[in-house]
Amino acid sequence: RTLDAHRCPTVVTLQSALLQSSVGTDNLTASILRQAARVVAVSGAAARNIAKFADKTLAEIDIVAPGIPADEFAPSQADVSPGQIPTIAFIGRLVSEKGADVAIEAVAQLSGAACLQCIGDGVERDRLQGLVRERRLGSFVRFAGQVDDTERRRLLSESFVVVVPSLHEELFGMVAVEGALSGLPVIASAIGGLQEIVEHGRTGFLFPAGNAGALARHLRTLIADPAASRRMGTAGRAKALLHYTI
Known about the structure:
By secondary structure, this protein is α/β, with parallel strands linked by helices.
């Protein structure tokens, strides 16, 4: 049996969503979860996912969010002043499920009102750069590539909002928390654990996954109202400091 090699209680934590196709009665993951003394989830969304696919009740699952070193993130000093083109930050792997193309399309709909900084790299980079050329957005979309922690924090400090346009169920949303700790409003897809981090209308906005038009509308709102943007960033940082630090 899976966990009989020792007598110690076993605690299991999962970092990615379980799918119906990956969990069955004879599946190793399901077996480990059934035999575990405790199961730890990174969010309420993760707990519900585990309960649904691994024959666990929510009472058997503890929720412990990942701890983030808050002292490494200072509130952004960037502001949207008249005549300035603000910068939107996207941070993540350039793969289809992260939705960078949704952010690019939203910027296209803003007609020059904002720039997008794509921080990260991945197999979709060539396709995304082709999309930027096709949409004639070369002056408004920049690809920073893979950067170290110091450079990432610097780029965040120069941004006025973080977008997390994921197309798959994010169990937590580390980028959303880093954006909040940087004192920035966060606009995220209304899926998975992102809905627990972002409070719609208070710390940022949630929008239907894949809906570039809705993302663009929320961006316009923040561009037009810098004071509201600052309030949301302040509220988001306070929430992150309360719930998501080490």
